[in-house]
């Protein structure tokens, strides 16, 4: 199984050794397989695992009220919040769209990427801010090397990742000193929605 970013991050932070850890996942549907390896691993460590599933047709991270409701449900299930990982993302395309292919970029791609990848990070952070402050918690946003000028799946994707880096800095100022806010910037990741790159691009 491919190790998802969420699991890799938890293990990197050394949380594997905390048997009382509670982990909440926001899933697109009840049978979502993307976070399954991470959920199994954390449950095997004795961690309390809570799952929030979006209702059919409801883009949960795109609606503030739904996000706030999901966060409150997880707080009830786990008793508190110490770490928020904003990892929701999509390239909104199955193939790379190079800058020269500008005409292939639709407004729908831009809207989907920014709503899912950027605005959702703001909404989840806003919903969780009070709980995180009370526990002196932390936030980790998943950006990308493409946000620093490296190639990405499209200019919409690279623009969003650059914006997420800037948002991370602003959130760090806004929530200090109670909450620490940082970002990670992985390169290409083998995931369930991996963009198909041409041999020349690889």
Structural class: alpha/beta
Strand order of the largest sheet: 3-4-5
Q: If you compute it from the alpha carbons, what radius of gyration comes out, rounded to the nearest whole angstrom? A: 17 Å
Oligomer state equals single chain
Question: How does the major sheet shape up?
Answer: 3 strands, parallel
Count of helical regions: 5
Which spans have pLDDT < 50 for at least 5 consecutive residues? 51-60
Element pattern in H and E: HEHEHEHEHE
The count of DSSP E runs of length 2 or more, i.e. the number of strands, is: 5
What report would you give on this structure?
Helix 2 (36-44) links the parallel strand 1 and strand 2. Strands 3-4-5 form a three-stranded parallel sheet, with helices on one face. A two-stranded parallel ribbon has the order 1-2. Helix content is 40%, strand content 13%. It is elongated. It has helices at residues 5-12, 36-44, 64-78, 107-134, 155-175; strands spanning 22-27, 48-53, 83-86, 138-142, 180-184. It is of the alpha/beta class and 202 residues long. The protein contains five helices and five strands, in the order αβαβαβαβαβ.
Q: What is the strand and helix layout of this fold?
A:
Layout: H1 5-12, E1 22-27, H2 36-44, E2 48-53, H3 64-78, E3 83-86, H4 107-134, E4 138-142, H5 155-175, E5 180-184
Helix pairs in contact: 3-4, 4-5
Describe the structure concisely.
This protein has 202 residues and is an alpha/beta fold.
């Amino acid at each position: 199984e491919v190790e998802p970013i969420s699991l890799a991050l938890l293990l990197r932070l050394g949380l594997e050794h905390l048997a009382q850890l509670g982990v909440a996942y926001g899933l697109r549907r009840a049978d979502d397989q993307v976070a399954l390896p991470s959920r199994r691993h954390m449950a095997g460590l004795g961690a309390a695992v809570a799952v929030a599933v979006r209702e059919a047709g409801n883009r949960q991270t795109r609606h503030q009220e739904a996000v706030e409701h999901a966060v409150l449900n997880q707080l009830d299930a786990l008793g508190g919040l110490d770490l928020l990982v904003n990892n929701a993302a999509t390239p909104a395309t199955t193939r790379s769209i190079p800058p020269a292919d500008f005409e292939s970029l639709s407004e729908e791609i831009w809207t989907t990427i920014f709503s899912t990848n950027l605005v959702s990070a703001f909404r989840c952070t806003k919903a969780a801010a009070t709980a995180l402050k009370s526990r002196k918690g932390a936030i980790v946003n998943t950006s990308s090397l493409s946000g620093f000028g490296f190639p990405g799946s499209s200019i919409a994707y690279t623009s969003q990742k650059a914006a997420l880096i800037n948002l991370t800095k602003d959130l760090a100022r806004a929530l200090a000193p109670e909450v620490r806010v940082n970002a990670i910037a992985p390169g290409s990741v083998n995931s369930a929605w991996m963009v198909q790159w041409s041999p020349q691009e690889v």
